[in-house]
Amino acid sequence: MNPKVRQLYKDLLWLAKNYPGDYPKIRDKLHDGFIRNARVSSGEELEKCLEHGEFIAKELQSLYFLRTYRAVKRNYYD
Amino acid sequence: MSSKIRILVPVKRVIDAALKPRINKTNTGVESKGVKFSMNPFCDIAVEEAVKIKEAHKEAVESIHAVSIGPSKAQDILRTALAKGVDTSTLVDVGEQEIEPLQVSKLLKKVVEQKDSNLVILGKQAIDDDSNQTGQMLAGLLGWPQATNASKVVVEGDFVTVTREVDGGAETIRAKLPLIITTDLRLNEPKFVTLPKMMKAKKKPLEIVKPDAYGVTIEERLEILKVEEPPARSAGVKVSSVDELVSKLQELKAL
Amino acid sequence: MLRLSCSRLLKGSRASAFPLRVPSLVAQAQWRQYSAAPALTKDIIQERIVELFESYDKTAGKEILPSSSFTRDLGLDSLDTVEVVMEIENEFSIIIPDHEADEIKTVQQAIDFIASQDDAC
């Protein structure tokens, strides 16, 4: 497995674990997403897939942050 | 020449802020089995602020030490703090026992003395018990000045200027170290810890001690009688005119 | 590690006129206990790894033997293996570099690798 792909999968799994939700469900979605692109092994297509993965990672981070702090704001400041 | 700053950041493991807690079957507490736990958001903000201060004052800040008083699983929270930039950490393992703010403050006082800390930054309250007492009690026990509900912190040598969120606005105060600061939500926005940082943090020191190592016996002075959910909000009533509003309020004896 | 050196010193003090430095070490042991867990034997490692596979949803209910191959016997694909290796890293608080992780294809290989790591706990 391409080391970048492996690291991306690990990073996304880690984010999924920290997101308070159904880990197996998120994990399965990530798994299927990666498997769908399994034939992509190099070049521009790989770069695009990796970029998409990084985008998902950033989205998950923002969602987690929003969810936590929106809850705190709602409970303490509104 | 100003003295070196040794920051202490106490952190607490609580049920994740985004989750809705469920009351347990005996109505004495909250269901914790199979529930996700995380660092208290206000403690997260405290860690972020300590790391920011260190980055802005690399020469002045000697170290950041995190401490958690809780169950063995609180090690995860300390690892997160280490991953965010804290240098060393201590877990005071109290098992599954609930520790009251006064006991926490007494233990923290011992840690402050052991680590010779001169700046303690902690969350203003934990989202599980909402006491909002630990910072203030610690300041009282140590005889230190305190700046609570901080929304801005500026370190200048031995002095710290803190903007506090108070009813009706903000108040800015200035104090000389040593000092206790408790964090408000508006202080900063903590960054998410990525996996590589978490892995690197595994090599940083995490010591585990028991409370009697500090010569403190945990005593419970409060007894929880009952825990219940707040009453469900009843549906509102729509009114079509000011007169109707007035008569409805009179009906409810609010006017 | 500190506890081991403690007991060695205690044994020494019985046999000879060893300077009584034991009390301060004991006091230090109260402050610093980097790991209170017992030493990791292969049996304990095996137990914990089997338990890990039993609680992993994709392998729960399957027979976990030391000889079990991740792909052939446990039905895991390469992504699942990455996930499992991550769980093992977490469980034993160690980092497994990619080139080592690539060689872990059976339960026994996982056990052997952990056993070879000094800082696994």
Automatic annotation (TrEMBL), chain A:
Biological processes annotated in GO: negative regulation of oxidative phosphorylation; respiratory electron transport chain
Pfam families: Complex1_LYR_2 (PF13233)
GO cellular component: mitochondrion
UniProt xrefs under CDD domains: Complex1_LYR_ETFRF1_LYRM5
Similarity remark: Belongs to the complex I LYR family.
Name of the protein described by the UniProt record: Mitochondrial zinc maintenance protein 1, mitochondrial
Source organism per UniProt: Kuraishia capsulata CBS 1993
TrEMBL record, chain B:
Protein's organism: Kuraishia capsulata CBS 1993
Entry keywords, A to Z: Electron transport, Mitochondrion, Transport
Domain Electron transfer flavoprotein alpha/beta-subunit N-terminal intervals: 27-218
A Gene Ontology molecular function term of the record: electron transfer activity
The protein's name: Probable electron transfer flavoprotein subunit beta
Phylogenetic classification of the source organism: Eukaryota, Fungi, Dikarya, Ascomycota, Saccharomycotina
Family under the similarity heading: Belongs to the ETF beta-subunit/FixA family.
Keyword Electron transport belongs to the record: yes
InterPro entries registered for this protein in UniProt: ET-Flavoprotein_bsu_CS, ETF_a/b_N, ETF_b, ETF_beta_N, Rossmann-like_a/b/a_fold
Cofactor: AMP; FAD
Cofactor note: Binds 1 AMP per subunit.
SUPFAM superfamilies, sorted: Adenine nucleotide alpha hydrolases-like (SSF52402)
UniProt record, GO biological process: amino acid catabolic process; fatty acid beta-oxidation using acyl-CoA dehydrogenase
PANTHER family named in the record: ELECTRON TRANSFER FLAVOPROTEIN BETA-SUBUNIT, ELECTRON TRANSFER FLAVOPROTEIN SUBUNIT BETA
Keyword flag Hydrolase: no
The organism's place on the tree of life at top rank: Eukaryota
Role according to the record: The electron transfer flavoprotein serves as a specific electron acceptor for several dehydrogenases, including five acyl-CoA dehydrogenases, glutaryl-CoA and sarcosine dehydrogenase. It transfers the electrons to the main mitochondrial respiratory chain via ETF-ubiquinone oxidoreductase (ETF dehydrogenase).
Principal subcellular localization: mitochondrion
Cellular component aspect of the GO annotation: mitochondrial matrix
Subunit (UniProt): Heterodimer of an alpha and a beta subunit.
Subcellular location(s) per record: Mitochondrion matrix
UniProtKB/TrEMBL annotation, chain C:
Gene Ontology terms for molecular function: acyl binding; acyl carrier activity
InterPro entries: ACP, ACP-like_sf, PP-bd_ACP, Ppantetheine_attach_site
Keywords: Electron transport, Fatty acid biosynthesis, Fatty acid metabolism, Lipid biosynthesis, Lipid metabolism, Mitochondrion, Phosphopantetheine, Phosphoprotein, Transit peptide, Transport
Pathway the protein contributes to: Lipid metabolism; fatty acid biosynthesis
Location in or out of the cell: Mitochondrion
Pfam families the UniProt entry points to: PP-binding (PF00550)
Gene3D superfamilies tied to this protein: ACP-like
A single GO cellular-component term on record: mitochondrial [2Fe-2S] assembly complex
Stretches that traverse the bilayer: none
Domain Carrier: 40-118
Family in the record: Belongs to the acyl carrier protein (ACP) family.
Functional summary from the UniProt entry: Carrier of the growing fatty acid chain in fatty acid biosynthesis.
Protein name, as recorded: Acyl carrier protein
Species for this entry: Kuraishia capsulata CBS 1993
